[in-house]
Design a protein that fits this description.
- The chain contains 11 helices and no strands.
- By secondary structure, the protein is an all-alpha fold.
- The longest helix has 21 residues, at 97-117.
- It is globular, with a radius of gyration of 16 Å.
Length: 189
């Protein structure tokens, strides 16, 4: 299977969503995120990608940001039935009740983690490093709609697990300079 870096290196401007993928690959994928709302945004986007292509999610990102109040955790956590109905009728996003409910539930979980740990980022840092399997178990204890692939992609995309970029990718060293969490080698069980 072609790696994401290899797909980008082919420079196929005719490929569906190539420009969106190139921007994401070169500027966002694997780079650490410190802002809790942006961490939440990435989690919601990864959850919504389940069963769909990442191209679909990248094309709908602006609509997601608009629909979910720019992923403001406090606002999403306070969503009521009218907000759920609004989201389920918004053709610009993925209209899946389980994914919408997961976003609201997960926003509430993150608010609790913020109270306990100061931030969602701090919670991630306190638990890092872990194996993928240990991360998945931890996420399943707290969050909804967080299976192995979603957790893996979420954590790779924000720099907590390695593998976002091939070592020979020209972005690999750019990411490494930002000191992603995965570059710490000691694992906690």
């Amino acid at each position: 299977m072609l790696s994401y870096c290899s797909f980008i290196a082919k420079e196929d401007n005719n490929a569906n969503g190539y420009t969106l993928h190139k921007h994401y690959h070169d500027n966002l994928y694997g780079f650490p995120i410190t802002d809790d709302n942006e961490l939440f945004a990435r989690l919601v986007l990864e959850i919504n990608q389940a069963g769909l292509s990442w191209t679909t999610i990248l094309k709908k990102e602006a609509a997601f940001r608009n629909a979910y109040h720019n992923f403001n955790i406090q606002k999403v956590a306070a969503y009521q039935q009218k907000d759920i109905d609004r989201l389920l009728n918004d053709a610009g996003i993925i209209r899946n009740r389980l994914k919408v409910n997961a976003a609201i539930h997960n926003a509430n979980v993150i608010m609790q983690l913020q109270k306990q740990y100061g931030s969602f980022k701090n919670w991630l840092d306190i638990h890092h490093p872990k194996t993928k399997q240990a991360w998945v178990l931890l996420f399943k204890q707290h969050f909804k709609f967080t299976g192995g692939e979603i957790v893996n992609e979420f954590l790779m995309s924000i720099g907590y697990l390695p593998g976002a970029h091939d070592k020979d990718c020209n972005i690999f060293n750019k990411v490494l300079k930002t000191k992603p969490a995965w570059s710490i080698q000691t694992l906690k069980k």
